[in-house]
Here is the input.
Amino acid sequence: MKDAVIVLSGGMDSVTLLYERAAEIALAVTFDYGSNHNRREEACAKEHCRRLGIEQVTIPLGFIGQYFESSLLAGAEAVPEGPYAAENMQSTVVPFRNGIMLAVAAGLAESRGLRKVLIANHDGDHVVYPDCREGFVAAMDRAVQEGTDGKVQVEAPYTRMSKADIARVGGRLGVDYARTYSCYKGGEKHCGRCATCLERREALREAGVEDGTEYEG
Here is the structure.
């Protein structure tokens, strides 16, 4: 039964969830909030939705890029390079991003008579991004259910999974990860040096999934 909206960036995690739960997904929503990598991610989101025959919409959240502070909104040169650690990646936090996106997705779901909002946060995000943690998702689920009179709920099935675990799921499903985008710098090729590129490489290697990504270095 197609009763779900998925928050779909076009990155590895959300594209994997798109394929895994395709039978349930009536609508994929991508948010353009002015990040360095939005345009390239959105192209991937659209491509996979076309392949699966799933409706995709892009909703602009330009106020985030205009009023919020984050290196993800400030150009490639502002993004730190090196490992995925709190002290290195703190500048990439976009304040309450997932809260805003989940609220909009819940409104879409209620408007269309759909019952679920799917989001692909995972265990590796927790150290840096508070709006990816289990407690946050549980609180948003409660708020959405209260705010929609029980009509809509939030599901985050990858919350306790590593990125390598997700890559294993995608490998079994035949997801073409070369047609996903992760790099926070937003270049034509993945830089291969920022934390998301390093995490992506390591996850695919650990999962034993072919990495067809083009890296600069």
The longest helix spans residues 97-112.
